[in-house]
């Protein structure tokens, strides 16, 4: 296996060397023969590693249509589309955008300034510009913003033979042909037929007789995360998008949903980490610091509040100084437990699993989990403290504090994101650092509250 990988890597290296040699020596035919033999993803990978001067040569070697295939595979988080398009001749760039799938072209144009978008749409061919304008009007992160209008629709009152003729004619421009959607005279979604069923059906059979009229669709304003869940649940390769009157507006393909899932996962991880945006790796330390500082400043003040709480128990610490040893233990266990419960809750919300459960069963389950983990950890730490320090009541104090803290921390880590989700706030905002700091405050209050109760046994 390792030899195969080395051979593959070696082959890719040889291709890169051949391509660069042909590019530098202006050997057009040699470059095109080697380059166009690559998969568009590999073309994009090669292109992304080139400096601006070498990219300028690529534009002279490839047609706008060939460049469109490459551009559709460029990673938005790795490329500044505004700068890349600025290197091209405006007419060349407009032709390239016209040859891209409309939804992919919209993704690129969304990265540009409004005046630049208007400029490209003006010089673009009229048909492509109209499709792109229609998609640009939809709100970001909705089904309408990620759908494509390049799909094949047929009528229920036509034969399989005529449907196959339409399929052959329109397939080159369609994003997928595995599902063919059926519409009525008013362009409303009436059904769907798979490519397999269309191929095996008799030529003279009417589409209405072989189509499936129980078709699952999604509203144009539906959130993209919900669309991704539907695609996962139904195992679809494409999902039709309709308006409130059930008119077929477009389709969402599985490759678009994979991008959505990556985007949503990155967004959730950013919030869990307490960082504004993790989509791109910031090379500039000032930019990176700007993204991280807001949450850090909030957590700094929460930490100062936590420190002030400890200060309020200064008299207790003066009487029993050994209590200070266990503050990091209590706070750390609370933070760890809360983060574990938070991760489970956020994942459950993201997958939709928790929405299927009754809220009281969730609360009881998490309370039970906190009770078991708290009891085990409390008994364990009480025994360790007793054998370590030889103080029974000190061990009992720390054990009970751990027990109560873990129950509350588990409930807080689970219920805070559920509450935020109910209030239509992204549950990932209840980030790891945030829930950890809140649990620190709670654990300190519990620990020193219990210490006052046990004070007469400790002095």
Walk me through this protein's architecture.
Helix 5 packs across helix 7. With 459 residues, the protein is mainly alpha-helical. It contains 22 helices and six strands. The protein has three domains: 136 residues, MgtE N-terminal domain-like (MgtE N-terminal fold); 106 residues, Roll (CBS-domain); 174 residues, SLC41 divalent cation transporters, integral membrane domain (Tetracycline Repressor, domain 2), CATH 1.10.357. Helix 15 links the parallel strand 4 and strand 5. The N terminus is likely disordered. The N and C termini lie far apart (68 Å). It comes from Mesobacillus subterraneus. One of its GO terms (cellular component) is plasma membrane. InterPro entries: CBS_dom, CBS_dom_sf, Mg_transptr_MgtE_intracell_dom, MgtE_N_sf, MgtE_transporter, SLC41_membr_dom, SLC41_membr_dom_sf. This is Magnesium transporter MgtE.
User: Helix count?
Assistant: 22
Poorly predicted segments: 1-12
The separation of the N and C termini measures 68 Å
For the biggest β-sheet, the strand order reads 1-2-3
Shape call: elongated
Structural class: mainly alpha
Kindly identify the CATH topology of the largest domain. Tetracycline Repressor, domain 2
Pfam family, one: CBS
Organism: Mesobacillus subterraneus
Subcellular location: Cell membrane; Membrane
GO cellular component, one term: plasma membrane
């Amino acid at each position: 296996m390792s030899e195969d990988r080395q051979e593959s890597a070696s082959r890719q290296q040889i291709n890169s060397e051949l391509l660069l040699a042909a590019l530098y020596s202006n050997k057009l035919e040699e470059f095109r023969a080697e380059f166009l033999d690559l998969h568009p993803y590999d073309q994009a990978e090669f292109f992304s590693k080139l400096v601006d001067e070498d990219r300028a040569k690529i534009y002279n070697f490839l047609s706008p249509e060939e460049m469109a295939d490459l551009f559709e595979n460029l990673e938005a988080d790795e490329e500044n589309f505004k700068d890349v398009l600025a290197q091209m001749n405006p007419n060349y760039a407009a032709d390239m955008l016209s040859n891209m799938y409309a939804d992919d072209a919209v993704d690129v144009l969304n990265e540009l300034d409004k005046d630049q978008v208007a400029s490209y749409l003006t010089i673009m061919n009229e048909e492509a510009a109209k499709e792109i304008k229609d998609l640009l009007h939809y709100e970001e992160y909705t089904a309408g913003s990620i759908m494509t209008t390049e799909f094949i629709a047929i009528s229920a009152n036509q034969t399989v033979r005529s449907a196959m003729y339409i399929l052959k004619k329109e397939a080159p421009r369609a994003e997928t042909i595995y599902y063919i959607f059926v519409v009525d005279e008013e362009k409303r979604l009436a059904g769907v037929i798979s490519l397999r069923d269309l191929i095996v059906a008799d030529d003279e059979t009417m589409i209405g007789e072989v189509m499936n009229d129980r078709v699952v669709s999604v509203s144009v304003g539906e959130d993209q995360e919900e669309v991704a869940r539907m695609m996962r649940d139904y195992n679809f390769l494409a999902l039709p998008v309709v308006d409130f009157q059930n008119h077929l507006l477009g389709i969402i393909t599985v490759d678009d949903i994979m991008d959505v899932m990556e985007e949503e996962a990155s967004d959730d991880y950013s919030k869990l980490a307490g960082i504004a945006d993790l989509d791109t790796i910031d090379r500039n330390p000032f930019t990176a610091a700007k993204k991280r500082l807001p949450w850090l400043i909030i957590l700094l003040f929460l930490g100062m509040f936590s420190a002030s709480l400890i200060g309020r128990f200064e008299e207790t610490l003066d009487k029993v100084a050994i209590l200070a040893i266990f503050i990091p233990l209590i706070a750390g266990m609370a933070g760890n437990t809360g983060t574990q419960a938070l991760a489970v809750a956020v994942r459950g919300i993201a997958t939709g699993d928790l929405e299927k459960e009754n809220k009281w069963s969730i609360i009881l389950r998490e309370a039970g989990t906190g009770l078991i983990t708290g009891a085990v950890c409390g008994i364990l730490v009480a025994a360790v403290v007793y054998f370590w320090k030889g103080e029974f009541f000190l061990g009992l104090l720390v054990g009970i504090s751990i027990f109560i803290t873990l129950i509350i921390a588990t409930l807080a880590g689970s219920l805070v994101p559920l509450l935020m989700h109910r209030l239509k706030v992204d549950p990932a905002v209840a980030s790891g650092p945030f829930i950890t700091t809140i649990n620190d405050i709670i654990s300190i209050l519990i620990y020193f509250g219990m210490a006052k109760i046990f004070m007469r046994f400790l002095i």
